[in-house]
Design a protein that fits this description.
alpha+beta, 2 domains, about 250 residues
Length: about 250
């Protein structure tokens, strides 16, 4: 007894074969194709397949990117720790440099201001023409030593983040002004005297304030008054020489 099963409903029953039942693959393919004739169903199945593939690809890319970022993070942490030590050493070196620079500038300021009056007297004496003499040479305005360089205190260190500017030290300097009262028997000598004072690198702001005619020893002379200011020339124009003390006579 043989039992035949119709796998394709609606299809015509084939002829019986003496050697048993056989599958009709052509009919089966046609039936399956008929079921997939629905466009929306096919699109849904295709979209699902594409989505699965895309999700898999994105997952693999995300894992690779995550591994690369973790490696970069570990390298950045190591570099940060190394650079923090370097920056701390640099900050300490800059603090020592600024302290030494401040002390050096204070010493230079003190050394430069201790010879103000020798320079003034030397320049006035060098500029003195014949037939001219001085009656008064006195300080006017603020007295010297009001703002001593030794009392300078550097500003506190800059703790703000970002690029730090190099410390610029501006030491307080006294403004030394003085007044000259002199007399001359020749007006041209006075003009030469004033021009020579203006050409001096240590003197500036030469201002003629007053002149008057006087009689001295039955001679007519001119009395003049000048206001001047001591100026500090550029260090390149100065020539420093050591003080020498002559040996005592034998």
């Amino acid at each position: 007894m043989r039992i035949e099963i119709n796998l394709l409903p609606g299809a015509k029953r084939g002829r019986r074969r003496s050697k048993g039942a056989a599958l009709d693959f052509k009919a089966m393919g046609a039936a399956i194709a008929a079921r997939f004739r629905d466009v929306w169903l096919s699109a849904a199945i295709g979209s699902g397949a594409v989505a699965v593939v895309v999700i898999g690809v994105l997952f693999m890319m995300q894992r690779s990117s995550e591994a690369a970022l973790i490696a970069l993070q570990e390298k950045a942490v190591a570099d940060s720790a190394r650079f923090a030590v370097v920056l701390a050493d640099r900050a300490r070196a800059e603090a020592k440099r600024d302290s030494a620079l401040t002390q050096l500038n204070i010493i230079k300021a003190i050394d430069g201001d201790r010879l103000i009056w020798p320079h003034i007297l030397d320049e006035v004496s060098r500029a003195m023409p014949p037939y001219t003499w001085l009656r008064t040479l006195a300080v006017t305005g603020t007295a010297q030593g009001t703002n001593p360089a030794a009392a300078f205190r550097p500003p506190p260190p800059d703790t703000t983040k970002g690029k730090k500017k190099r410390l610029v030290i501006e030491l307080p300097r006294d403004t030394v002004r003085f007044h000259i009262v002199g007399r001359t028997a020749d007006l041209q000598a006075f003009t030469l005297f004033m021009q020579t004072l203006e050409d001096s690198p240590y003197l500036g702001a030469v201002l003629f304030t007053k002149t008057e005619t006087m009689i001295e020893g039955a001679k007519e002379i001119k009395q003049f008054e000048l206001d001047l200011m001591f100026t500090r020339p550029d260090s390149s124009l100065l020539k420093r020489v050591p003080f020498t003390i002559p040996p005592p006579p034998r």
